[in-house]
């Protein structure tokens, strides 16, 4: 009996050592497969994106004219990235927690500013002029109706004045003609127009979402239509692309709203999109999509008028950014 | 009366607060520590995984979250019942810890399917539900009644230490190995397996001193009969009522950040503050509970929580108010979490220990779930300040009610 007891302890210790060795060996083996290479910087005409192949989130570039060509690493590692007008915004890991930060980079790659994020990086945009930067993080554990769910924090930074809006929740919002005052309102996915103060965004409350149009100067937003999320304004400012749900809790698909005619075109074959789509030009969109069958996120391109099915642009990638 | 196990020699001591704790408490503490590293690694990583790697919508995730929160309550009762019925608390706890370990490996298999992830989460939480009551029964059965507060304090402190380590491990992996999912799940699985091995190796099955009777005294009827005992009924009722006015931690942190006006980026660090205070105060609070009575300490903990809610009403209090609130919140956990089990344990007959603890825990857990949902509706309907004021008013009523309910202090040490 006593022998058995001692034997059991020994067996337990041996088992623990084996588990530690196996786990440690696995981690060591995984970390040993690093990547080395020259960091390149993006040029006009490039498509910037985040490489999803190994989980290291390295920002890569390919010429948009030859998206199947060789992919080159840049110096940044980001969870979300966007770039325009010489300004790049990179949402990335910052420190223990795990915590995340917004890094705003200038044209020369120098960090202009970093800001702590309240949650998981999710949306990042820069206005065409490079002057207005916006981002959204999803905060765990603070959704209001469901314990432990999610809510969002959306911030906007104006580089000309240094004005920082920590959260769009301080703006006054009108939905269906009424001011939206519920404490559970959430905002995400900002896209700023060429005038650098008109913007579109998503607001939600009680599991309903609306597309809103707002103004950064007088700090107001009003409803455009119910349903859409994550808007993205076309370069000429005439159309807004967004994702909308097929059913109440269904998957998203991409749609384009003509702001003058109010005609909404749903783009076939885009089911499964998340994040904001990016306009390659005034007629074509790029977006990241998870196929849903266990494969990694990839970047697809689609015509904004819905006349053709989407085609694969870059495999194992997310956060497409056309460099102009 | 305290009945010893076969493995710990009979202590001819009076139920004094001093003396050593049985090694089972430390072994179970180590199991919880390792398991919590594993669990909190996933808690820290899951949002990244769901939103970023799998691109699930947050509404979908909220639904999943509600699902797994609800799944545990009933399984606690089942875990307690089966553990008493088979007279094998360690075996049932082992099944629970094992299920959660296996769930870590099942995540990658579930892929990006919402239903799949929901199923794995539910399985993981089922393991948690199953193991909690038998584990607390093992602590309760192996420790002299006079030291129960300290024993649960030590266990909860070790548990919390693991919970603090988990996110750090996840961050290290994300920083070193990238946000790919496999390393996080594999390392989390390893910690969970280590926890299971420690449980199998260093925790002895509690062997009841009496031979197994031909007909087990443990039945659903006997368990339901526990509530006929006035003291158990009252503590369950009091814990449940207090649970109904307890706002979930997430809400506390969010409201605190907003009203105190501390920088938004500190929001993820607020839970850390509560956990650190809990870690530091769990053992002293346990000792205090042994010395001054468990019910008074449990009650005082809720008075502290009332103070925390009052702090949520102070506009622009800045860091002083935020720190005071977090200290109060951590002390609330230290004064209530293990102390409730230390209090309830000796009231329940040994043969029904796990079931009895499960009944008290389930009442509290269900009440807290209901309060979270209710507070969510309050926030959607009114301003944060009015919602907190409403909770505060209800809290005062419940405190008075529970004080009346248990004013006779049925907390005599010689249970």
Automatic annotation (TrEMBL), chain A:
Keywords: Membrane, Transmembrane, Transmembrane helix
Protein origin, superkingdom: Bacteria
SUPFAM superfamilies: Tricorn protease N-terminal domain
Keyword Membrane: yes
TM spans (from-to): 9-29
Xref: InterPro entries: 6-blade_b-propeller_TolB-like
The name this protein goes by in its record: WD40-like Beta Propeller Repeat
Organism per entry: Amycolatopsis magusensis
Taxonomic classification: Bacteria, Bacillati, Actinomycetota, Actinomycetes, Pseudonocardiales
From TrEMBL, chain B:
Limits of the Major facilitator superfamily (MFS) profile domain: 24-411
Membrane topology: Multi-pass membrane protein
Localization, UniProt: Cell membrane
SUPFAM superfamilies xref list: MFS general substrate transporter
Presence of keyword Chaperone: no
The organism's place on the tree of life at top rank: Bacteria
Name this polypeptide is given: MFS family permease
């Amino acid at each position: 009996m006593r022998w058995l007891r001692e034997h059991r302890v020994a067996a337990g210790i041996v088992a623990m050592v084996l588990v530690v060795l196996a786990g440690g060996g696995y981690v060591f083996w995984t970390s040993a497969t690093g990547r080395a290479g020259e960091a390149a910087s993006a040029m006009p005409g490039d498509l910037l994106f985040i490489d999803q192949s190994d989980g290291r989130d390295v920002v890569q570039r390919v010429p948009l004219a030859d998206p199947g060509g060789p992919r080159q690493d840049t110096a940044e590692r980001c969870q979300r990235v966007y770039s325009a007008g010489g300004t790049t915004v990179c949402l990335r890991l910052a420190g223990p927690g795990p915590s995340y930060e917004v890094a705003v980079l200038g044209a020369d790659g120098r960090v202009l500013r970093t800001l702590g994020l309240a949650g998981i990086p999710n949306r990042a945009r820069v206005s065409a002029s490079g002057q207005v930067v916006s981002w959204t993080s999803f905060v765990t554990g603070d959704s209001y109706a469901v314990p432990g769910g999610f809510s969002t924090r959306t911030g906007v930074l104006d580089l000309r004045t240094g004005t920082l809006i920590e959260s769009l929740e301080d703006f006054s919002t009108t939905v269906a003609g009424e001011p939206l005052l519920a404490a559970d309102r959430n905002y995400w996915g900002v896209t700023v127009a060429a005038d650098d103060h008109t913007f579109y965004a998503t607001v939600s409350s009680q599991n309903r979402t609306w597309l809103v149009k707002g103004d950064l100067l007088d700090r107001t937003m009003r409803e455009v239509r119910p349903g859409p999320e994550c808007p993205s304004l076309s370069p000429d400012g005439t159309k807004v692309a967004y994702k909308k749900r097929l059913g109440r809790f269904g998957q998203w698909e991409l749609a384009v709203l003509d702001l003058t005619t109010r005609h909404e075109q749903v783009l076939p074959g885009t089911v499964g999109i998340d994040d904001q789509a990016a306009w390659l030009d005034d007629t074509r969109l790029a977006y990241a999509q998870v196929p849903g069958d266990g494969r990694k996120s990839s970047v697809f391109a689609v015509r904004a008028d819905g006349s053709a099915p989407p085609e694969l642009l870059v495999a194992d990638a997310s956060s497409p950014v056309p460099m102009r | 009366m305290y009945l010893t196990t076969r493995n710990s020699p009979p202590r001819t001591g009076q139920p004094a607060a001093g003396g050593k704790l049985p090694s089972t408490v430390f072994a179970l503490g180590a199991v919880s520590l390792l398991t919590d590293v594993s669990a909190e690694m996933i808690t820290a990583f899951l949002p990244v995984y769901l939103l970023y790697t799998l691109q699930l919508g947050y509404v979908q995730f909220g639904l999943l979250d509600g699902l797994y929160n609800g799944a545990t309550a009933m399984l606690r009762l089942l875990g307690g019942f089966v553990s008493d019925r088979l007279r094998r608390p360690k075996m049932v706890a082992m099944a629970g810890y094992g299920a959660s370990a296996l769930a870590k490996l099942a995540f990658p298999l579930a892929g990006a399917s919402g239903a799949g992830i929901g199923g794995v989460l539910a399985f993981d939480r089922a393991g948690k539900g199953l193991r909690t009551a038998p584990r607390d029964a093992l602590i309760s059965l192996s420790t002299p009644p006079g030291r129960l507060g300290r024993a649960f304090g030590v266990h909860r402190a070790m548990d919390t230490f693991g919970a603090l380590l988990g996110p750090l491990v996840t961050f290290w992996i994300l920083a070193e190995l990238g946000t790919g999912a496999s390393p996080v799940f594999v390392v989390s699985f390893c910690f969970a397996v280590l926890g299971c091995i420690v449980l199998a190796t260093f925790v002895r099955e509690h062997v009841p001193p009496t031979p197994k009777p031909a007909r087990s005294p443990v039945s659903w009827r006997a368990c339901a009969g526990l509530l006929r005992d006035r003291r158990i009924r009252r503590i369950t009722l009091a814990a449940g009522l207090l649970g109904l006015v307890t706002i979930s931690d997430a809400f506390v942190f969010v409201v605190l950040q907003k009203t105190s006006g501390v920088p938004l980026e500190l929001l993820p660090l607020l839970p850390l503050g509560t956990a650190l205070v809990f870690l530091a105060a769990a053992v002293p609070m346990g000792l205090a509970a042994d010395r001054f009575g468990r019910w008074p300490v449990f009650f005082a903990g809720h008075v502290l929580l009332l103070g925390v809610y009052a702090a949520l009403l102070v506009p622009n209090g800045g860091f002083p108010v935020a720190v005071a609130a977090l200290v109060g919140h951590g002390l609330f956990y230290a004064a209530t979490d293990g102390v409730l089990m230390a209090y309830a344990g000796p009231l329940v007959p040994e043969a029904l220990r796990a079931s009895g603890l499960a009944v008290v825990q389930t009442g509290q857990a269900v009440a807290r779930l209901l309060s979270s949902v209710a507070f969510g509706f309050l926030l959607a309907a009114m301003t944060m300040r009015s919602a907190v004021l409403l909770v505060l008013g209800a809290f005062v009523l419940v405190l008075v009610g529970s004080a009346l309910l248990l004013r006779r202090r049925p907390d005599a040490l010689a249970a």
